[in-house]
Amino acid sequence: MSQSRLLFCAPASGGGKTTVTCAVLQALVNRGLRPVSFKSGPDYIDPMFHSQVIGATARNLDLFLLGEAAVLHLLAENGAKGDVAIIDGAMGYYDGKVAYYSKALEIPKEWRGEKVFLHFDGVMMNASLEVNGYQVKQHHYGYTPFWADITSRIYWGEKNRIVVSVNPSMQPNSRWYTGAGIFRSVELVHMPGIRIGNDGIFTYTKRVEWREGEPEEAFVCSEVRSEERRV
Predict the structure, then answer these.
(1) Can you tell me the distance from the alpha carbon of 154 to that of 201, in angstroms, rounded to the nearest whole number?
(2) Cα angle for residues 92, 78, 88 (degrees, 5° grid)
C-alpha cells in the first residue's frame, strides 16, 4: 500500500524544521486529516511538540541505533495509521568524508623561548594536527575544544606548514552535525614559560552559609604552570 510522505530538513541547526513541521501538522489537522509524525535521530524533545499538535505519539527514525530494517518497519507500520506521514528531518543524514586544511604560518622569531599553542574551539571529528610534517595532536571528539602545543616543531622566523585533517567516516554521523570540518574559531596563542594554565581559571563554592544581610562567598582559583611542571 502506498503512503503519502513529506520530509522537512535543513542544512544547519536552528533552521526551523520543527517549527515548520508543527505548523504543517496543525494545518492538516485543521483540514480534517489524520497526520502521523516522525523525527530523525534519537531526539525525544521535538516529537513531544508533534504530539501536542496531533494528539498521538510521534516516532523516532534512528538508523544508527535501530538499523535500516527497523526504521523501514516503523515508518510503514505507523505511517499506515494516518492519511499522511510528516517527517521532521535533521542534520546528519549523510556521512562526512576525509578533509584537509593547510596553512603557511610565519611564527615571529621574537617568540622564541615562549610556549606557542593552537587553540581549536570545534573540529568535527577525529582531528589530527601536523606542524611541518610532524603530528603534534589528535582529538577525536567533535564537540569539545582542545589545545595543541606546537612549540617544539616551529621554525622560528620562517613559514611553518600547518595541516589539519578531519575524518568522520569511521562511524555513522549523528543527527547533531552533518559533514565535517573546522566549524568554530582557531587561535594562535603564545605565552611565557610560567603562565596561567590553559583553561586554568575557574570558580567553585567551597561552602554554602547563609546569614541574613551578609554576602555569599565564592572562590576564584587558578592553575599556574611552568614550562617543565605544575607549580
Answers:
(1) 27
(2) 30
Dihedral (C-alpha) 92, 94, 99, 101: value to the nearest 10 degrees? -40
Please state the pTM of the whole predicted model: 0.54
119-157 pLDDT, tens per residue?
999 998 899 999 999 999 999 988 899 999 999 999 999
Nearest Cα to 18, choosing from 51, 67, 66, 64? Answer: 51
Q: What is the four-CA torsion angle of 164, 179, 22, 43, rounded to 10 degrees?
A: -80
Q: Single out the residue of 154, 153, 150 nearest to residue 110, CA to CA.
A: 154
Tell me the per-residue pLDDT of 32-71, one tens digit each, with 9 for 90 and over.
999 999 988 777 788 888 888 878 778 888 877 788 888 8
Give the residue among 130, 117, 54 at the shortest CA–CA distance from 88.
54
